[in-house]
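Reproducibility note. Readers wishing to regenerate the assembly model reported in the main text can use the exact inputs given here. Chain order matters: entities are listed in the order in which they were concatenated for prediction.
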Amino acid sequence: MEVGKAIITDRLTKTFGGFTAVDSISFSVDKGEIFGFLGANGAGKTTAMRMLCGLSKPTSGKGVVAGFDISRQSEKVKRNIGYMSQKFSLYEDLEVWENMRLFAGIYGMGDKEIIEKTDEVLNRLGFYEEKNTLVKDLPLGWKQKLAFSTAIFHEPKIVFLDEPTGGVDPVTRRQFWELIYQAADGGITVFVTTHYMDEAEYCNKVSIMVDGRIEALDTPLRLKQQFNTSTMNGVFQQLAQTASRNE
Amino acid sequence: MVTVNNLTKRYDNVEALRGINFSANDGEIFGIIGPDGAGKTSLFRILTTLILADGGTATVNGLDVVKDYREIRNTVGYMPGKFSLYQDLTVDENLNFFATVFNTTVEDNYELVKDIYQQIEPFKKRKAEALSGGMKQKLALSCALIHKPTVLFLDEPTTGVDPVSRKEFWEMLKNLKQQGISILVSTPYMDEASLCDRIALIQSGEIMNINTPSQIIADFPDKLYAVKAANNYHLLNELKQKADVKSCYMSGEYLHVTFKTENEPTIDNIKMHVIQPTIEDCFIRLMK
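Running the prediction on these inputs yields the following structure tokens for the assembly.
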């Protein structure tokens, strides 16, 4: 694997029957980069992300994530990544510390290490008093921040975030992104999907999928120059309108 | 016309609505803008007579939401945030079902839903569960309109929807407004605020401000600056330490900054320019 790359794909493809959900995508993500993975609903983002996380086998093509082949070493891929989505992140009927204990245990961390790190993470978030609170009693914004901290608790090489900030208030949304920046500063590669175009600007690089293909990939600045517009929303609108797939 | 007077609602230890007041006029698109948990859904469920408030009063078209709930149900359309159609009925069957429940037919009111329904008509024999997100949204809107309501309640119709489909959806709302339908719509997307005639900014069960989007922006009291650096995150941390910085946060490719001083502020080696605030800037300021 090329040094300095967290993700490399080569003509990665997934078909369901006669439908090509992901159509031969080739791209790479640098280590420590914040990579925005954009596309309209139905463009193939979720299918691509599931393959990269080792949850679904490619029909053809190749992908290497955290140094492991996604077809042949999917269990190793899973051990070296973190994942959170808006839909599923934490167990509502477990307390805050129990969630951390559970996920850290699944990722094979030792008891002593888990106990120390739980206190450290909660202190850093200013959330120590809520250690014994049930997750269902927390406000949404806090759940999301906690879910992110849990997803990177075992210090994965890469964390996958699937629309992590949907519905969150603008202040919490920014606090969430500050956590993302902190993680990236600490060397974790961040792979994130979002429908908020201002968040696309926060990424080092952005790709935009249309009809299963990656139609654009560059820094936000160069994409805006290329599409001759002042916002990422402008870039997105121009590309997504070329879609022929009826979702 | 919708009026809301001092409305309160509590669930166990959560105060969902803490005394809300507003009135939405006939023929306007009135936006309820706020994040998850602000109280938007509770408000919509009270106004559509699905739950009772703990305190306060509300009317829809002059009818009381408690006393006159039957008449209200006949005159309003409601599209809940969660997809609420029958998954095991086809597109066609869903629309017919809702028309029949309201004692009317699809043919009678076809004009009203035509523009929206035609987009999904090619799939009319498909079960609702097999539709994509965008098509489900169009079917739900058609079903909410098929009895020709005078007021339409749309609870987060665009949440989780991509920017292109969101734009299309707002175009549909504009057309409905032109047909004389009053629309109350909630959204967590601040950029959709400018598409409403008037908006209420809501947070933690309280309305922070009600006005036209342009007036809310005009009322922003501070001079707002945009700055950027090669690494905005590092600049952000730096600015947060400065004594004369009042607020500083990320906003797209820039950081938005306000200062405590009246004088022209400067930051070493950084170009700054004054910008017009967005609704999101106003929301963030009011949240503090």
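We highlight two features of this model. Chain A touches chain B at residues 39-42, 139-141, 163, 166-172, 174, 177-178, 181, 185, 195-198, 201-202, 220-221, 231-233, 236-237, 240-241, 243, 246-247 (CB under 8 Å). Residues 170-185 of chain A form the longest helix (16 residues).
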